[in-house]
Amino acid sequence: MITRSAVTVDSLTWQEQLASSIRDPKQLLDMLGLSHSLLDGALNAHGDFPLRVPHSYLQRIAIGDPNDPLLRQVLPLGDELLAAPGYSEDPLKEQVANPIAGLIHKYHGRVLLIVSPNCAINCRYCFRRHFPYQDNKPSRHEWQAALEYIAGDDSISEVIYSGGDPLAASDKQLQWLTQQVAQINHVKRLRVHTRLPIVIPSRVTDSCLQWLTETRLKTSMVIHSNHPNELDTAVAGALTRLKDAGVTLLNQTVLLADVNDDLSVLQQLSERLFDVGVLPYYLHQLDRIQGAAHFEVSDIKARQLVAELMATLPGYLVPKLVREIPDAQNKVPLL
Q: What residues have CB less than 8 Å from 32, skipping those under 6 apart?
């Protein structure tokens, strides 16, 4: 584990941790004692999609190991700049399902709101690394158009907060938006997709718990953890607070080459998630976003891994293996 850091995370608010995140590839390599032979590729890929790593996540990365599974998720590599057949800047065709600023409507019965364009960490396989966030940053006044869209379609029973990362927005903004959504009678459920409780667990504040639980909406949170090493004591504490407050907790994992494409790792992840009150939900095959081809795992291997999980774990600990396909009516099961 890391023994040196320029920042003592326990003394910082979550906002200060966001602001102090590492954004310089050379600094990241130096803090982890890694060779500068990685620097040219890191700088080039960083220019295309910037590095961002909070110190609270950095502390879980092993010093001196360029193959650490957490490091691989965040370190820019020259491989990201190689063109790959079948990969594109909008693999899910979200931009054609974006009728109003801040709103994506792909599936029957639910809509997704781009609550914040920002993330606490820039995952190198991010399927929205090329998303036009500059066109999807509604002001409070402009959110009214999205709310009117939801109110005008009584088939919508669930609103999903996404981003970026929705928890990068302030609790004041999230409370206001949630109260507005709760006033739309046909909306029954609120779902929050976030990685922030994993990368900066102190984000789970009293005010966060308040807006999550104070309305009539049934609230779930889908966290995003890819490896058991991400689930340290601080993260477990944050997830326990959410569960104790009555928030249903689910996890989705992206299957990534040389990160978690291993039976033992996936077993440990499911077991650890359940230990901290989270139910494994989805195991996603990679969205084919330009820049992420080096993370791809074949469908054959993915199916084999899940079959082995089914043979070794109770069914409720085995996530559903899925791929998201443009224009499909739902996530497509692969097993």
A: 2, 58, 61, 62, 63, 64, 65, 71
Q: Structural domain of residue 144, as residue ranges?
A: 94-333
Residue 231 corresponds to which amino acid? L
CATH of the domain at 139: 3.20.20.70
What pTM did the predictor assign?
A: 0.94
CA 183 distance to own-chain centroid: 28
H helices of the chain, in order, are 14-19, 25-31, 39-48, 55-58, 69-74, 143-151, 171-182, 196-199, 206-213, 233-244, 263-275, 299-312
Q: What average pLDDT values come out for the chain (335 residues) when binned by 10 residues?
A: 58 95 98 97 94 98 98 96 91 79 92 93 89 73 92 98 95 97 98 98 98 98 98 98 98 98 98 98 95 96 98 98 89 91
- Alpha-carbon distance of 96 to 318, in angstroms, equals 33
